[in-house]
Design goal:
This protein has 234 residues and is α/β, with parallel strands linked by helices. It is built from 7 helices and 9 strands; from the N terminus they run E-H-E-H-H-E-E-H-H-E-E-H-E-E-H-E. The chain has helices at 26-35, 60-67, 69-81, 105-109, 119-128, 167-180, 211-219; strands spanning 7-13, 40-46, 84-93, 96-101, 132-135, 157-162, 184-187, 201-204, 225-227. Strands 7-6-5-4-3-2-1-8-9 form a 9-stranded mixed β-sheet. Helix 1 runs parallel beside helix 3 (69-81). One zinc ion binds next to loops.
Length: 234
């Protein structure tokens, strides 16, 4: 009998509709992942407090509408070809980034101004609402990031493998997750599917039915592995 197959998902993907620093549209993103045989992707554009394309001076619901455009375009294509596309976002606070899963675009439309909460209040609020926080590339160092900030009691999991970070930054992230007993995740952080596409993500035993399902597997430590293979991610 053949081994049951594992499902491949990228959990950290940007589109140019939502993220100022991204080069590929939602449609282009979905085409590229489908061509590579992925089972699904989670679109995580930069939230309004990050490198967002969305103007600040519009009504909240209009902002959410613009924010979700890349996700919707990707999902439209994904639905046609049978690849799953889910919605999440990447919250930013002074250069530190927090992937937010398990709450959908309707929840976001109903919760104006959460982008203005100070970081710790944001993390508490999201988790109280049933959302799950993954600290993205916690050891990223760059000119626009004033400090590395670790909040082990305030996040649910740590991204230990990011397709666009240096090995040493990923190694430190894994050390962080391991030393605090935090669950781990992996994702590409792709911004451009034409140049430098990173094949990075998680392997799952089951097909997802949404980001709350994904978050549950992360918290229950049921992620089966990551790609590219990393020692200790299984
Ligand atoms: Zn970006
Ligand atoms: Zn990102």
């Amino acid at each position: 009998m053949s081994e049951p197959r594992l499902y491949r998902y990228d959990t950290h993907v940007h589109t140019s509709e939502g993220s100022k620093c991204a080069k590929s549209s939602g449609r282009e993103v979905a085409e590229a992942y489908h061509a590579r045989g992925y089972d699904g992707i989670i679109i995580t554009d930069h939230f309004f407090n990050g490198n967002s394309t969305v103007p600040r001076d519009l009504p909240w619901r209009e902002r959410v509408e613009l924010f979700t455009a890349g996700y919707r375009a990707a999902k439209e294509y994904g639905d046609k070809v049978g690849m799953q596309v889910f919605f999440a976002w990447e919250d930013s606070s002074e250069g530190n980034d927090f992937l937010t899963y398990g709450l959908d675009e309707n929840w976001l439309a109903d919760h104006p101004f959460i982008d203005r909460l100070p970081l710790v209040d944001y993390l508490k609020y999201i988790r109280a609402e049933g959302g799950t926080i993954v600290h993205a590339h916690p050891f990223r160092q760059d000119y626009y990031i004033p400090m590395i900030r670790l909040l082990p009691d305030r996040v649910d999991a740590v991204e230990i493998l990011n397709g666009h970070r240096k090995d040493e930054e990923n190694r430190r992230a894994k050390w962080y997750a391991d030393s605090y007993g935090l669950p781990w995740t992996a994702g590409s952080d792709n911004h451009d599917v034409m140049n430098g596409f990173a094949e990075t993500g998680v392997l799952l035993d089951e097909r997802l039915n949404g980001t709350a399902h994904y978050a549950r597997l992360v918290l229950e430590r049921k992620i089966r592995g990551c790609f590219p293979h990393l020692e200790g991610c299984s």
